[in-house]
């Protein structure tokens, strides 16, 4: 089973605006499909992408960026209710990942987290420090971490680069999560994007907090040599049991082929690298199935 842990939901004009996507992906000249989030029927189109990629299950994410980007002028806001409805319609293909802005109303956010798990069986929480302008060490967020521990729910943090202009880089550094791990050692954490470009910071975090994970979403934007070099480091420092496959929507249909063929790509380019079938199975699905209870 192949599991993609990093896919976003939403409809153009309803949950986000075109300018948002233009900013988000504008920095990458090789995005294979710049219109991927503009499709008329995004859910059915996503399923087509998953079929093309050979992905069995996608962990689909909500988002709420209304506070830094008031919704009236076209922010990104995909409610948990919408994600839950998509999962209800496609329970064999989707696993729900809830989200909220933890500082919009911390008390309501804690209640919403419990609702998402109890009513809809969502399997993880996604938080976006840079988009929502908060430091993950902010004590106002701590009750949400406590609730996630109580519910045995992984917390998936967007860390690292984004092309979105109103997303301060000071909230992108993976090391911001270290204090969270010290304060909440029982919390399961997933560091998105390997914290790119601060990959070594991310690796040090995982070496220290040995039950944490990272995903490789967004890495489809880079030449495969970048991915191979990162994975060599990851294997040496952490082992592949804590690396998760994720795509990000522009690469959902294409990125599996790259990852599944890394040995051949390395051989063609004269790079010393080889990953075993057993380790590839861990990355492409086995690790995620355990973490997300799939």
Explain this structure.
The protein is globular, with a radius of gyration of 18 Å. The chain has a single domain, classed as TIM Barrel, CATH 3.20.20.140. The protein is an alpha/beta fold. The strands form 2 sheets. It has an 8-stranded parallel sheet. Strands 3-4 form a two-stranded antiparallel ribbon. Helix 4 (106-120) packs parallel to helix 5 (142-150). It contains 11 helices and 10 strands. The mean pLDDT is 94.
In brief:
The chain is α/β, with parallel strands linked by helices. Helices cover 39% and strands 12% of the residues. Strand 6 (124-127), helix 5 (142-150) and strand 7 (155-157) form a beta-alpha-beta unit.
- Order of adjacent strands in the largest pleated sheet: 1-2-5-6-7-8-9-10
- Can you tell me the overall shape? globular
**Share of helix, binned:** 25-40%
- List the helices and strands in order: EHHEEEHEHEHEHEHEHEHHH
For the secondary structure, the number of strands is 10
CATH class categorisation = Alpha Beta
DSSP strand content: 5-15%
The major pleated sheet works out as: 8 strands, parallel
Helix and strand composition category: alpha/beta
Superfamily (CATH H level) name: Metal-dependent hydrolases
Q: Quote the distance from N terminus to C terminus.
A: 10 Å
Known CATH architecture = Alpha-Beta Barrel
CATH topology (level 3) name: TIM Barrel
Unreliable parts:
none
Write the layout of secondary structure elements.
Blueprint: E1 3-8, H1 18-25, H2 42-53, E2 57-61, E3 63-64, E4 77-78, H3 80-89, E5 94-99, H4 106-120, E6 124-127, H5 142-150, E7 155-157, H6 178-183, E8 189-191, H7 199-208, E9 213-215, H8 224-237, E10 243-244, H9 255-260, H10 262-269, H11 277-292
Parallel strand pairs: 1-2, 2-5, 5-6, 6-7, 7-8, 8-9, 9-10
Antiparallel strand pairs: 3-4
Helix pairs in contact: 4-5, 7-8
């Amino acid at each position: 089973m192949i599991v993609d842990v990093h896919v976003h939901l939403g409809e153009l004009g309803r949950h986000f605006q075109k300018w948002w996507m233009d900013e988000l992906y504008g920095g990458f000249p090789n995005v294979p499909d710049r219109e991927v989030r503009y499709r008329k029927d995004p859910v059915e189109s996503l399923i087509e992408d998953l079929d093309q990629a050979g992905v069995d299950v996608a962990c689909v994410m909500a988002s709420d960026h209304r506070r830094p980007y008031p919704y009236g002028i076209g922010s990104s806001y995909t409610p948990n209710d919408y994600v839950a409805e998509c999962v209800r319609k496609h329970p064999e293909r989707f696993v729900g990942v809830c989200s909220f802005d933890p500082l919009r109303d911390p008390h309501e956010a804690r209640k919403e987290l419990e609702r998402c798990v109890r009513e809809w069986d969502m399997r993880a929480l996604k938080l976006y420090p840079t988009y929502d302008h908060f430091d993950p060490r902010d004590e106002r967020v701590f009750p949400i971490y406590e609730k996630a521990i109580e519910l045995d729910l992984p917390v998936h943090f967007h860390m690292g680069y984004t092309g979105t202009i109103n997303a301060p880089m000071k909230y992108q550094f993976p090391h911001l999560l270290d204090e969270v791990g010290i304060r909440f050692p029982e919390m399961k954490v997933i560091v998105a994007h390997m914290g790119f470009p601060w990959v070594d910071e991310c690796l040090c975090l995982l070496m220290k907090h040995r039950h944490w994970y990272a995903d490789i979403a967004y890495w489809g934007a880079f030449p495969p040599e970048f991915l191979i070099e990162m994975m060599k480091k990851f294997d040496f420092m952490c082992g592949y049991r804590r690396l998760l496959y994720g795509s990000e929507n522009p690469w959902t249909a294409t990125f599996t082929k790259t990852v599944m063929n890394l040995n051949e790509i390395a051989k063609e380019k004269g790079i010393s690298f080889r990953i075993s079938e057993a380790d590839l199975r861990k990355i492409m699905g086995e690790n995620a199935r355990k973490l997300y209870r799939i």
